[in-house]
Design a protein that fits this description.
- Keywords: Transport.
- InterPro entries: ABC_transporter-like_ATP-bd (IPR003439), ABC_transporter-like_CS (IPR017871), ABC_transporter_ATP-bind (IPR050166), P-loop_NTPase (IPR027417).
- GO terms for molecular function: ATP binding; ATP hydrolysis activity.
- This is ABC transporter domain-containing protein.
- This protein is α/β, with parallel strands linked by helices.
- The chain is built from 8 helices and 5 strands, in the order αβαααβαβαββαα.
- It folds into 2 domains: about 20-125, P-loop containing nucleotide triphosphate hydrolases (Rossmann fold, 3-Layer(aba) Sandwich); about 130-190, no CATH class.
- It is about 50% helix and about 15% strand.
- The strands form 2 sheets. Strands 1-2-3 form a 3-stranded parallel beta sheet, covered by helices on one side. A two-stranded antiparallel sheet has the order 4-5.
- β4 (about 140-145) and β5 (about 150-155) form a beta hairpin.
- The radius of gyration is 18 Å and the shape is elongated.
């Protein structure tokens, strides 16, 4: 079976709801997995893994097993695994949902820093209105049965963002609009 085109497969990366790390493998091996699957030469892959781990502040944990890391660190390892392929689009399916608010906000800030440094596009799925508004340039509210776009809210706040934005009246106004759209979608779906 021929290998997929490495350049084509590197355009897209996915971060799951849970870290989905191989428990028997160390963090470096977990992060290197997509490069191994693409047939990347070992020396090149090891350099990319070191860079990806440094990018998410896990460079001192390459030889640790997932069970030795906190939940937030495991998620950062999962993000490093996605970024090691240098994607142009990063799909993230509620990656911070299981984390406490403090860790979630810190990882939101780290994700923004990575996005600004690397310039990849992010499609981020979340059930948290505040997280959606904070991370986004645009929030798309979806309804179920059938799946459809209910509303689209532009977030015109400048970058970088921080606690000043999180506590601003502009943020509250945007969060209120998204909350109303989510409530309307839930009400329509319940019928």
């Amino acid at each position: 079976m021929p290998r997929p085109d490495a350049d084509r497969s590197r355009r897209l990366a996915y971060v799951f709801q849970s870290p989905t790390l191989m428990p028997w493998a160390d963090i470096a091996t977990n992060v290197r997995l997509p490069l191994d699957l693409a047939g990347t030469p070992r020396a090149e892959a090891d350099g990319a893994v070191a860079d990806a781990l440094a990018l998410v502040a896990l460079d001192g944990f390459a030889r640790h097993r997932p069970r030795e890391l906190s939940g937030g660190m495991q998620m950062r390892a999962s993000i490093a695994r996605a970024l090691v392929t240098q994607p142009s689009l990063l799909l993230m399916d509620e990656p911070f949902a299981a984390l406490d608010d403090f860790t979630r906000q810190r990882l939101d800030d780290e994700l923004i820093a990575l996005w600004r440094a690397r310039g990849f596009a992010v499609m981020f799925v979340t059930h948290s209105v505040t997280e959606a508004v904070y991370l986004s340039t645009r929030v798309v509210v979806m309804g179920a049965r059938p799946g459809r776009v209910v509303d689209e809210v532009e977030v015109p706040a400048p970058w970088p963002r921080g606690d000043d934005f999180r506590t601003s009246t502009g943020f509250a106004t945007l969060a209120r609009r998204v909350t109303k759209a989510v409530a309307a979608a839930a009400s329509a779906d319940a019928r």
